User: What shape does this take?
Amino acid sequence: MDENKNKILQMLSEGKISVEEASRLLYLVGEESKTDTSDNSIRKSKSNAKYLYVKVSPKEGHQDAERVNVRIPVSLVRAGMKLTALMPPEVADNVNKAMKDKGMGFDIRNLDNNFIEQLVNALKDEEIEIDSEEALIKVYAD
Amino acid sequence: MSWPPYLLKLRIKNSSHNFGLWLPLFLIWPIVLVCLLSVFIILLPFALLTVIFTWQLGWCYPVIMGIPAICRVLWNLKGMIVDVNGRDEHVQVEFH
Assistant: This one.
């Protein structure tokens, strides 16, 4: 990227481009490098999260409720996602119908690794917290 | 390179029982592999017949590809922890 900036400055010094044009080009080169950096950070975060956590903690006054701690390896989730492709058509149709009834209108056969990577990345940045009357449920990746 | 889980830690505790088990999976995997291989050889003709008869129903692909997919899931169990703590019960399953 520095090479591009040098070229722009050289063109400016040679009088091939005006100051305004050089400024605009330098701005564009800067934006491009920002995009590269954010792409790299996404790639980095993809490989970082190893586990998915689900924690259920009972609230005060509900001490009889169960305390649950589940740690699921992300690789297991990925392997599990591949099982969806093996679903017989009728089973997948039934699952899709059941999910649609619950308000989730997507085809389970279309779930792929990109989906799970996006989900894990999202859970790494922000945890899901469900605050019910009896318990506090947290889902996050680390 | 990833390895399958080599140890299963199981703990079940309630008011009347307290049961803990460390299962050395690294000793069991070779035995399971040999058993699976022999079962596979014995059941191969039946599996082929099943595939032929379920071809029309669309169950053929899951029958063929299901075994490696399940093996992949078992392989990736390492690091899985399930810990459920009730008032009088405690169940803990860990794959190491």
Summary: The interface with chain B takes residues 50-51, 63-64, 66-73, 75-76, 78-80, 82-83, 86-90 of chain A (CB under 8 Å). Strands of chain A lie at 51-58, 67-73, 128-131, 135-141. The radius of gyration of chain A is 25 Å. The CA atoms of residues 12 and 50 of chain A lie 49 Å apart.
